[in-house]
Amino acid sequence: MNRTKISVLLSLCLLLALAPAQAQTKRAINFDDLISMHRVGDPQLSPDGKWVAYTVATPDKAANRTVRNVWLVPTAGGEARQLTRSGRDMMARWSPDGSKIAFLSSRDGGMQIYLIALEGGEATKLTSISTGADNVQWSPDGKMLAFTSSVYPDCKDDACNAKRDADAEKSKVKARIYDRLLYRHWSDWWDYKRSHLFVVGVDGANPRDLTSGADYDTPPVQRGGAESIAWSPDSKELCYTAVTDKVEATSTNGDLFVVPAAGGDSKRITSATGFDGNPVYSPDGKSIAYRSQLRAGYEADRWRLMLYDRASGKHTNLTENFDRSAESYAWSPDSRMLYFNAEDRGFVNIFSMAPTAGSDPKPILKDSYHAEFVLSDDGKTLVFSRQSMAMPAELFTSNADGTGVRQLTKHNAAKLAQLDMNKAEHIWFDAADGVKIHAMLLRPPAFDAAKKYPLLVICHGGPQTQFSDAWSYRWNPQMFAAPGYVVLMVNRRGSTGFGQKFADDINADWGGKAYQDVMKGVDYALAKYPFIDGTRMAAAGGSYGGYMINWMASQSKGRFKALISHAGVYNFESEYGATEELWFPEWDYRGTPWNDPGKNYEKFSPNKFAAEFGKYKTPTLVITGELDFRVPYTQSLEFYTALQRQGVPSKLLIYPDEGHWILKPQNSELWYKTFLDWLATYLK
User: Fold this and answer.
1) Rounded to an integer, what distance in angstroms lies between the CA atom of residue 262 and that of residue 497?
2) Is the distance from CB of 18 to CB of 85 less than 8 angstroms?
């Protein structure tokens, strides 16, 4: 045998010897791994299609905040490079000629618009408006930028707004006075301002308020963002979304308006009783695509993709026969095709369709989670984010028909290579009434089918959302599986992505079919997977999922060893009087507490069952934030008090500086530690 062959054989033997050791170096994920992951999003293609600008957000645990910067990656493949470095930059938008990028930054205090060249270098500050800037968009001719800013409606200029803010800051009196509903939202009290639509030239001088004096917000504070605003192709007009109903807390109505970019009166172009929003002009300027919910008062009605003919004023429903909700969308450059994404059975797929009524949407990227996408100006290339339960979002590209998929960014590849994480297993089972129910099961790291593992059942919120095969930072299934638990996630009745009737089945039935679906899912998992230990089970959930835990406390008859309730509704009547979006309980409970002919405020309210089935008995951890205005923290206090007074082992974790979600890195670390410690106490 010659020397070369001997060398090759020795190398192969060495590799084989090292392979088991290398495999064993993978380990379970921990909090430091999770919090150090780079969060990739908001992809934007350059006009020539050669570059993608995007935002990378990375939590800084020591500073207890998230660092955000703009990055670039070539669509042909290659190394990504960081374009900005202040740690406070986001929402990059290309100029139409591709020579520079506008972005938002709070590097000098309040959020303002900055410009930076493609080559990098120092960014220049474009706006200095005292009330800050948000939702930046270039005009197609490159001469102006649109943005939004929250101003006092009766102020005529920035000096007035600046003085009003300064006076409020100096005042020793911090009391608030209100005479209307929707006086607070999520985690913020209304500060008497309205988000108005502005335009500014590329020189940054004299921003103009196009909705001056308007006593409404664009984008709507309840349900809007940058997608609520669009430029016409000729740069002469903008279309925006606004809620103009007097009692905003009870209305899900929203309409589209158009306004001349040079200034003038706004014109309403939709008048349906549901929500109309997210306008996108066709490249030929003839149409505006938008999405609409047709049922008034119902925020979970599916989003139809609509078309407005600018010449005739005609509205066409494009997706009435498509039983999914259109999310974001884009036109092909010849205006003959629309691309959109939609939730579908645990995934978010991308579809294409002709912009005509009755056209059949065709899935071009499916069976994965594609939350964001953008189409190149020549219509040949898609850039999109893709993620799974085993991989945080990264950017990919493909041909416009979905072929030729390639990964562009790998910000988390080195970290992921160290971690032992399983993919989600998609399963289906029959509900008590025969309806097919989807669920996902996640096995723990270093899984051994010969062993027995405790089961953790996670209940999702909404109630009209879905469990997706996607990465999560606030409720990360890999973190829950890491200590050695099997994790079960059931897309019970009320989940989106399974058709409108399936989502509607939870209306006025919060503790009915949805609860039965979850319990049926537990039964199915126990029967199917012999490695699950049915004597060691726990359940946890947040928001509506927290409600489900509160409901389980009285209904599950001690089946679980431990429960964890985060921001869960406990008392329907008191929650109604303290929450902000009143359309939600008025639809889901079918009225108000004083007008409740169906007794829905009693039928499924957990507090009414505190003494049922021999009172509460399951050890329960209760978590809440004092700034949660959606499910006010007093709901958790009521539940915790009932547990304590009935002698149930229980613990309360309450954050004075968090709302519905726990967002600050150090607070999140305590959340996961307390959560997992509670499980370990009762499942190990």
Assistant:
1) 42
2) no
